[in-house]
Amino acid sequence: MRYVKNWAALDSGLSQKPWFAPRAATTVVTYSFHTERNLPAPSELFYQSDRTKVLTGHQQDLVRGAMDRFEALGNLVFVETARDAAINILGVEGSDWGGWSSYPTYRGTLVLESMSMGTILHEIGHSLGFKHPFEDEVRLRPELDTKDMTIMSYTGFSDMLGPLDEVALRKFYGRPGQTEEWEIESQGRRVVILGGRDEDSILGARSRNELHGKGGDDRLFGHTERDRLHGGAGDDRLKGMEGRDVLSGGKGDDTLFGMSGNDRLTGGRGEDLFVFRQGEGTDRITDFKPGADRIEIRNGASEIDDLSMRQRGEDVVIRFGDGPYWKTRIIVEDSTLEEMRQEDVFLF
């Protein structure tokens, strides 16, 4: 056991921002309030209670206000959706606990018996990856383990985030981003974000995302489901992550990473780079321009002779990778073997 006097005592090792996302990326966190139609039974929850309930409009506003406090201090944006969000919120009665919440997972639950601001902030903290300062191997020094230092403490009373919470939030998610120009809309489980005129760096929610970079050299990251990423003008960098994604670079010299899942990649105007690794499924390039665009193979092949290429109708199918589970297949539409075997097409 190790005692510290800083934010490390709050680090659960989990957060809504996965390891692959850069610090500069604004993390989109979805949340929803349970309705009578999807309210779970008390037996489905982690802790015992007499009954579950839907939060009133006033109580929902309290939760939204608490989320605003986190947004003001860290590089994240909360977006309310209809259902199946990263954080799904309900109330209970007859529990021995003021509230509880799961650490970030694909779907998380936040439960409130008490509607005090201190409890709401505490439980949102857990949903963002904050742990209690008195648990696990790394702990806060006892004289600092108070709510004056962190809302995650059990000692004392506070309805505000403490100084350690602010530092931890920035360590996990980065400093607040420039999101004033963004337009954000929720369409069922899909989150639609239109970025600003300058450089945007957006990490999509754990749901279906439609991200538009618009102007500037943007960095757009999908997440776990079927995402649509549109770079717009500028030299953009798009990463689909998991799921069957659709990536469109738009104008400019863009870099597109389909990553896992069967993705559809369109570079658009400019000299674009399509990047692949072994084991990423089957991706399709819709507009490869010989002499302008290039394909980079990061692993699984070190030279063109390591690639299997064949003509299939009007398309070229490229395969590479070791073993049955590490294969990647690239379908380059409207191309020929002669074009794809030119020495300036591939980078290794």
From TrEMBL:
<feature type="region of interest" description="Disordered">
    <location>
        <begin position="208"/>
        <end position="236"/>
    </location>
</feature>
<dbReference type="InterPro" id="IPR024079">
    <property type="entry name" value="MetalloPept_cat_dom_sf"/>
</dbReference>
<dbReference type="InterPro" id="IPR011049">
    <property type="entry name" value="Serralysin-like_metalloprot_C"/>
</dbReference>
<dbReference type="InterPro" id="IPR018511">
    <property type="entry name" value="Hemolysin-typ_Ca-bd_CS"/>
</dbReference>
<protein>
    <recommendedName>
        <fullName>Peptidase metallopeptidase domain-containing protein</fullName>
    </recommendedName>
</protein>
<feature type="domain" description="Peptidase metallopeptidase">
    <location>
        <begin position="36"/>
        <end position="163"/>
    </location>
</feature>
<dbReference type="GO" id="GO:0005576">
    <property type="term" value="C:extracellular region"/>
</dbReference>
<keyword id="KW-0964">Secreted</keyword>
<dbReference type="GO" id="GO:0006508">
    <property type="term" value="P:proteolysis"/>
</dbReference>
<dbReference type="InterPro" id="IPR001343">
    <property type="entry name" value="Hemolysn_Ca-bd"/>
</dbReference>
<dbReference type="GO" id="GO:0008270">
    <property type="term" value="F:zinc ion binding"/>
</dbReference>
<dbReference type="Pfam" id="PF00353">
    <property type="entry name" value="HemolysinCabind"/>
</dbReference>
<dbReference type="InterPro" id="IPR006026">
    <property type="entry name" value="Peptidase_Metallo"/>
</dbReference>
<dbReference type="GO" id="GO:0005509">
    <property type="term" value="F:calcium ion binding"/>
</dbReference>
<dbReference type="InterPro" id="IPR050557">
    <property type="entry name" value="RTX_toxin/Mannuronan_C5-epim"/>
</dbReference>
<dbReference type="GO" id="GO:0008237">
    <property type="term" value="F:metallopeptidase activity"/>
</dbReference>
<comment type="similarity">
    <text>Belongs to the peptidase M10B family.</text>
</comment>
